[in-house]
Amino acid sequence: MNEVVSILIVGVGGQGTLLASKLLGRILLDEGYDVKVSELHGMSQRGGSVATYVKYGKKVYSPVIDEGEADYIVSFEMLEAARWAHCLKPGGLIISNTQQIDPMPVTTGAAEYPAGLAETLASSGIRIDAFDALTPAVEAGSAKAVNILLMGRLARYLGIGREKWIEAIKLSVPPKFTEMNLKAFETGFGMN
User: What is residue 142's predicted lDDT score, i.e. its pLDDT?
Assistant: First the structure.
């Protein structure tokens, strides 16, 4: 049996979704999996939605994750978790930062940011692990470390040893940011 695991990484431009997917892809390749990664950009340079598909298994034929196929959705922002929830398979899991980044309609006053998104998703039967990833990322050294903190949380579910993640982080980020990202990863990995 060729089980393929599908992970959708979503956020808004500038949050580091691409670095997170490259880090994840590196680890999965090192584990001996066939890995396919595909990036889907919206208006990423203007704070728009960004999604990256990561699929791995013995043999993967396409990187695309269709509706109802994602085993995991890792969301860097709460509205993006809700926007992409239709892609989650039954029994799948959303790991989401509870941070709220106002999209343009909210910024201009044309709409309001929906309240209680994590609760709404959970009440609809979706498994969700939602928590504040921004505060501990800032404590680790930068708000930009949210991506690596969320990868730490994902690592707990994937069952790939933390030593392999640490090595991949050292190879994936510039040396001056290594210590901060390692701290963010360890925080995400160790959070209850």
Answer: 93
Would the pLDDT of 44 be above 70? Answer: no
Q: Give the phi and the psi of residue 101 in degrees, each rounded to 5.
A: -115, 120
Instruction: State the Cα angle at 74 between 70 and 75, rounded to 5°.
Output: 120
CA atoms within 13 A on the CB side of 70: 27
> What CA–CA distance (Å, rounded) separates 28 from 81?
23
Domains and CATH numbers, the chain: 5-102+112-190 (3.40.920.10)
SS3 60: coil
- The kind and range of the H/E element at 35 are strand 34-41
Q: How many CA atoms lie within 13 A of 95 on its CB side?
A: 24
Q: In the predicted model, is pLDDT for residue 1 greater than 50?
A: no
pTM above 0.90, yes or no: yes
CA–CA separation, 156 vs 190, rounded Å?
8
Q: Within a 10 A sphere around the Cβ of 171, how many other Cβ atoms? A: 11
Higher pLDDT: 94 or 38? It is: 94
